[in-house]
Amino acid sequence: MQQLNDSIILRLLETTTNPTSLSHASRRFHSLWTLSSARSNWLLRQNQDPTTALQSACTKHRDDGTVANLLARFTFTPHWLAHCLLDVCMLPAPTASYPSQPSSTTLPPSVVRALLAAAPDLEADMSLYLRAQLFGGPGSASSKIEIGWLLNEAYRAPYIQCGVAALFFASWRGHVDAVVALLDHVPAVGPRLDASALDHVALVVAARDGKADVVEVLLRHGASAKARDGLARKVASRGGYADVVKLLDDWAAAPFVSN
């Protein structure tokens, strides 16, 4: 919830006839706001229906408690859950340039895990949705470039699965906990997500941007350091990420690793 400006609070204090009651009411409001059920009800009033409330809780507020509350109270289609999962993984991570960013800019891994536990359709075709985001969505220029890159890389595949796209964007954004959650998830129906899916595009994009922690997670979950003639190493070297280059070289040379 957005904080009120000090001048607004002072104006309220100046106009109220009973500042003590106002202070008590503010404390009670804050206490109630800590309840995920209260935040869920507020979102439902704001968005009118559970589907958009869930999307708002996932992407705008990134509130894991509210997401869990909404998932427990309402039934959502696997396809809608897939859309929410993909939208969450596409969110930007906080950067060192803006250390004062509010906590809502972080991505709690529990949001991803809650969505995965609700059984989204990880095999849902996201091609049309991604094309809509590319040509008409509100995303930033950088996200549109990555969407275009993924669509171009996937031209050999019949379609882009939600799980593959989510892993790609989580790797690009540097959401290492989300990457782990996606790769550790064992769905009740359908195949488990493979780090080598779609020709190791997640590994390449993580190596290109110097995200060594994500690269290591992907390698430990089956991505190949030698895939596509060592493309991940080439892009990491071009970017000057010596730690990623060394990591990929170590894995490529390890006798116990199947590459």
TrEMBL record:
This is Uncharacterized protein. It comes from the Eukaryota. ANK repeats lie at residues 198-230. Keywords: ANK repeat. InterPro entries: Ankyrin_rpt, Ankyrin_rpt-contain_sf. It comes from Blyttiomyces helicus.
